[in-house]
């Protein structure tokens, strides 16, 4: 006779739960992008790793911004946003736009497309108009109606896992 015993993790609460949640989510690889907008001719942007396609018909995407994000304030006014999914060679840009630097766009090649900053060399480019912004815990979900999209077939998108930047490689 074969017996199996099932082990279940006990739920945890409080600060320990937060630490365990952050640690567990760190194991999940996520793509890395820079969200951008333009206000009064000034570019604004920040690194994001919580975004995904939401709908094909109509085309929509979603990204998550921290409740204290300066970009969130500006996007709430401009109602337009760009999403530059970074190439694996753009790790320096990911770090730069994740920093508190005021001049993130200095020495960063970019142009205005669809009314928002598009970074040169991005693996995927999306832009759109904000449909709505929804509070979700300590973040806000920005739902976007996509108005422009392009992708480089030769790109290896940048990913983030266990506090390290990397990329995806197919397995056989």
TrEMBL record:
Keyword presence, 4Fe-4S: no
Cross-referenced InterPro entries: Flavin_Rdtase-like_dom, NADH-dep_flavin_reductase, Split_barrel_FMN-bd
SUPFAM superfamilies in the record: FMN-binding split barrel
Annotated ranges, domain Flavin reductase like: 25-167
Highest taxon of the lineage: Bacteria
Keywords carried by this UniProt record: Oxidoreductase
GO molecular function: FMN binding; riboflavin reductase (NADPH) activity
Gene3D superfamilies: Electron Transport, Fmn-binding Protein, Chain A
PANTHER family: FLAVIN REDUCTASE, FMN REDUCTASE (NADH) RUTF
Record protein name field: Oxidoreductase
């Amino acid at each position: 006779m074969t017996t199996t015993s099932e082990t279940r993790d006990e739920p945890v609460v409080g600060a320990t739960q937060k630490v365990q949640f952050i640690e567990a989510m760190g194991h999940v690889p996520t793509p890395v992008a820079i969200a951008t907008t333009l206000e009064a001719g000034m570019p604004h942007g920040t690194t994001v790793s919580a975004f995904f396609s939401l709908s094909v018909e109509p085309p929509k995407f979603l990204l998550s911004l921290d409740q204290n994000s300066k970009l969130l304030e500006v996007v709430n006014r401009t109602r337009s946003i760009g999403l530059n999914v970074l190439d694996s060679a753009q790790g320096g840009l990911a770090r730069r736009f994740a920093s508190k630097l005021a001049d993130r766009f200095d020495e960063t090649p970019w142009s205005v497309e669809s009314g928002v900053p598009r970074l040169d060399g991005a693996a995927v480019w999306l832009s759109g108009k904000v449909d709505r912004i929804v509070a979700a815990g300590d973040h806000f979900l920005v739902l976007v109606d996509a108005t422009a999209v392009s992708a480089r077939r030769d790109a290896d998108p940048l990913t983030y896992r266990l506090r390290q930047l990397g990329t995806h490689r197919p397995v056989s």
